[in-house]
Each structure stands twice: as structure tokens, then as C-alpha cells.
Amino acid sequence: MPVGRVKWYSLEKGFGFIASDESEDVYLASSALPAGVATVKPGTKLEFSIIEGRRGPQAHAVHVLEEPASVVANTRANADDLATMIEDTIKILDKVGNGIRHGRHPSGADAERLAKVLRGIASQIEG
Fold first, then answer.
1. Residues 31 and 53 in one domain
2. Of 14, 44, 66, which residue sits at a domain end?
3. CA-CA distance, 81 to 3, in Å (whole number)?
């Protein structure tokens, strides 16, 4: 299986990219992350398989091998970053709430992404 490190990942957008040791950068969707993992930090070492997506190589069946040395479990984001994440999430929830009022529930993929965002923020607040 290929190995690489996370270049960047956006919890809000639900995707990022891996700098693969074997090939070009690989797209990383939130749906490819292991169960219980809401986000990954830049520098996280991952093992993954590659499938060919519409826009190129895409990570599949991702396993976290090693987190960056500077990341400690339960470390909170700095206050400004956390405040920004919460404000962005409020905007997303407001949009979802308005849609639900009009009988439009989020699609399965959108609902899953929103749930991961909420779990990520909850873990930062509980940290």
C-alpha cells in the first residue's frame, strides 16, 4: 500500500491532499478517513490504497500510521482558530436548518460531512 503525509486537510470542506511517497498528490475525501477520525493534521503519515477518481488519484481505505510529533492528543486549537471554526459551522447549520424548514434534508454525503465537522469541533471544545 502507498504511504504519504497529509499536505493539508480542511474539516469544513471535507477534503484535502496527501503528498504520496510513490506518485503525485492524492485527493483525500473525508469519507476515506478511518471510522472515528474526523480530521487529520498536516504531516500526519497515512497508509492508503489508490482508486482513480474523476479528477485523478484518490485515497481509499486510509489508515493513520503516525501523527506529527508536535500534535498531542486532546490539544485544543488556538482560540482564534476555534472561534472561526465555530462561526463557519454556525453558517453551515443555518443553511441546513433553512433547507429543512423547506422540506430539503441534506443528502447522505452532506449529512455525513456535517456530522464529522460537528464531532471535530466537539472534540476541540471537550479537549
1. yes
2. 66
3. 29
How many independent structural domains does the chain possess? 2
82: three-class secondary structure by DSSP? helix
HSE, side-chain direction, 13 A CA sphere, residue 16 = 24
Q: Would you say residue 57 lies in a domain?
A: yes
pLDDT tens per residue, range 103-127: 999 998 888 888 888 888 888 887 6
The dihedral over CA atoms of 24, 28, 94, 108, expressed in degrees to the nearest 10, equals 130
Residue 55 corresponds to which amino acid?
Answer: R
Q: Which phi and psi (to 5°) does residue 47 adopt?
A: -115, 140
Span 57-95, pLDDT tens digits = 999 999 999 987 654 445 667 888 888 888 988 998 999
Q: Quote the CA–CA distance of 120 and 76 in Å, as a whole number.
A: 11
Q: For residues 55 and 24, what is the distance between their CA atoms, to the nearest angstrom? A: 12
CATH number, domain with residue 62: 2.40.50.140
